[in-house]
């Protein structure tokens, strides 16, 4: 049984004193956070000072969904009237006018792994579609008819596009353009989804009739183990830490739960004063953001040591023993790099050929120049050093 981490208070709280917070997300490679709320407003915050940098106006209804592009340059938001707006993340200025995307509320959006498309989903019973929008032209490129009310859309973060769609009836998974599978996931509606970083697992959250989280093996699309229990009302949101070691979930039971993926146990419970609509890890993995009907975004410290990676590096023209590794944690242009040093302190290289995330399942490869800040590294000597002690 996992031991609960005694976290009782957030490290920071952002107040939106009069309005429900529907969504919150960290903006990668910046000191900013973006939120959407029921006052038709999208807000860009400085996470260090708590200052609202920009109130982004343009929606005609409650702003119920938002997504930030993988490169941190764009924000997409959707409202209760079915409108979609794209924004520049660094300034909060609109990239588009309001686009009529659906006939009713857009509750879920996501960017494709290459940021070429935004996919939107409407919760309207007379819609039942997901639509794809070209991020160059912001015109619709295609749509999928899902046959049931759609609650959530989520792309796996890298590789060949894998899109999961959660509906009242099932989960549908597309790989590229092809429908890979559809399967019954919960006893009633599936409301939330999250992929593991290595794409080998998909997590799903159920509604009030089945407020569990279920884990799915993406090689067979079968359930892994028993449902994760703890929430007493619907699971509105799930997010997986980029190390693959933890997940967070938000619920109408006024709590955010932090789960340890190795044993599927709750290790921390974060309390809100009302239903929690959204919860997500910050881009650098050091904090958890959560928001909801208590009209605030709370920032909680993520457990230390959440990243464990093994690195196989290429050092051109060098046959020296690697003695130390330095990680760049800043959100500057040099972030997401690993620096290797020899025993005399001379820098050997600053990039790696491959990173293996230590997850609960198969290890997945991550390309050069990581998409997230790197905080620690674990070496396996037999993989790192050859007999004459140079990096492979």
Explain the overall architecture.
- This is WD40 repeat-like protein.
- Keywords: Repeat, WD repeat.
- WD repeats lie at residues 14-55, 56-97, 99-143, 228-269, 269-300.
- There is one protein chain.
- With 392 residues, the protein is mostly beta strands.
- The protein has two domains: 12-301, YVTN repeat-like/Quinoprotein amine dehydrogenase (Methylamine Dehydrogenase, Chain H, 7 Propeller); 309-384, no CATH class.
- It contains one helix and 34 strands.
- The chain is globular, with a radius of gyration of 21 Å.
- The model is unreliable at 306-392 (pLDDT under 50).
How would you summarize what this structure contains?
The chain has 392 residues and is mainly β.
The CATH homology group name of the largest domain: YVTN repeat-like/Quinoprotein amine dehydrogenase
How many helices? The count is: 1
Any low-confidence stretches, pLDDT <50, length ≥5?
306-392
The CATH topology annotation of the largest domain reads as Methylamine Dehydrogenase, Chain H
**How helix-rich are the residues, as a percent range?**
under 10%
Total count of strands: 34
By oligomeric state, this entry counts as single chain
Pfam families: WD40 (PF00400)
InterPro entries: WD40/YVTN_repeat-like_dom_sf, WD40_PAC1, WD40_repeat_CS, WD40_repeat_dom_sf, WD40_rpt
Protein name: WD40 repeat-like protein
Keywords: Repeat, WD repeat
């Amino acid at each position: 049984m996992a031991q609960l981490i005694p976290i009782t208070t957030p490290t920071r709280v952002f107040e939106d004193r009069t309005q429900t917070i529907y969504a919150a997300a960290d903006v990668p490679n910046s000191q900013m956070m973006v939120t959407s709320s029921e006052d038709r407003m999208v807000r860009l915050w400085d996470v260090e000072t708590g200052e609202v940098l920009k109130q982004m106006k343009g929606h005609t209804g409650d702003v119920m969904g938002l997504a930030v592009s993988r490169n941190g340059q764009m924000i997409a938001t959707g409202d209760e009237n079915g409108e979609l707006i794209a924004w520049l993340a660094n300034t909060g200025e609109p990239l588009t006018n309001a686009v009529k995307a659906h006939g009713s509320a857009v509750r879920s959006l996501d960017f494709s792994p290459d940021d070429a498309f935004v996919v939107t989903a409407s919760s309207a019973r007379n819609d039942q579609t997901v639509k794809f929008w070209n991020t160059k032209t912001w015109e619709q490129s295609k749509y999928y008819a899902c046959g049931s009310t759609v609650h959530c859309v989520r792309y796996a973060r890298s590789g060949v596009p894998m899109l999961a769609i959660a509906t009242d009836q099932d989960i549908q998974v597309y790989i590229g353009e092809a429908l890979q599978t559809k399967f019954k996931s919960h006893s009633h509606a599936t409301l939330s989804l999250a992929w593991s970083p290595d794409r080998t697992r998909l997590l799903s959250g159920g509604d009030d009739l089945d407020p569990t989280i279920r884990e799915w093996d993406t090689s067979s699309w079968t359930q892994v183990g028993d449902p994760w229990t703890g929430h007493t009302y619907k699971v509105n949101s799930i997010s997986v830490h980029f190390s693959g070691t933890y997940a967070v979930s938000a619920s109408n039971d006024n709590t955010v739960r932090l789960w340890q993926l190795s044993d599927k146990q709750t290790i921390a419970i974060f309390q809100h004063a009302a239903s929690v609509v959204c919860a997500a890890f910050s881009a650098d993995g050091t904090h958890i953001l959560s928001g909801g009907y208590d009209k605030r975004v709370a920032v909680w410290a993520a457990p230390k040591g959440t990243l464990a990676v093994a690195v196989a590096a290429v050092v051109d023209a060098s046959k020296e023993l690697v003695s130390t590794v330095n990680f760049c944690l800043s959100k500057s242009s040099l972030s997401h790099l690993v620096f290797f040093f020899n025993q005399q302190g001379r820098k050997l290289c600053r990039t790696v050929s491959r990173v293996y995330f230590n997850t609960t399942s198969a290890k997945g490869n991550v390309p050069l120049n990581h998409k997230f800040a790197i905080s620690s590294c674990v070496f396996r000597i037999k993989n790192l050093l050859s007999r004459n002690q140079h990096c492979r």
